[in-house]
Amino acid sequence: MSTIVPNEALYRSLIERVPGIVYISHFGSDAKWHYVSPQIKEYLGYAAEEWLADPSLWLQHVHPDDRELVLAEEQRLHKTGRAFFAEYRMVSKDGRVIWFRDESMIIRPEGFDVPVLYGILSDISERKATEVALRESEERLRLALEAAHLGMWEWDPETDALFWDDRHCSLFGLNPKEAPATAAKFLELVFPEDREWVRHAVREGLRHDEAYGAEYRVRWPDGREHWLASAGRVLRNANSRAYRMRGITYDVTDRRGLEEHLRRAQKMEAIGQLAGGVAHDFNNLLMVIRGHVELLLNRPGVDAGVAHNAEAIQKASDRAAGITQQLLAFSRKQVLQARVIEMRTVVKDIANLLRRLLGPMVDFRLQLPAEPLWVRADESQLEQVVLNLAINARDAMPNGGTVTAILDHVTGDSPVVRRRPGMPEADYIRLRVIDTGTGMDAATQARIFEPFFTTKEFGKGTGLGLATVYGVVKQSDGWIWVDSTVGIGTTFEIFLPAVKEPDPETSKKTNAGKETGGSETILVVDDEEGVREVATQYLSSHGYFVLAAESGARALELAAAHRGTIHVLVTDAVMPGMNGPALAKTLLGERPETKVLYMSGYAEDTSLLEEARDRGEGFLQKPFGLDTLAQRLRELLRK
Question: Is the entire prediction scored with pTM above 0.70?
Answer without folding.
Answer: no
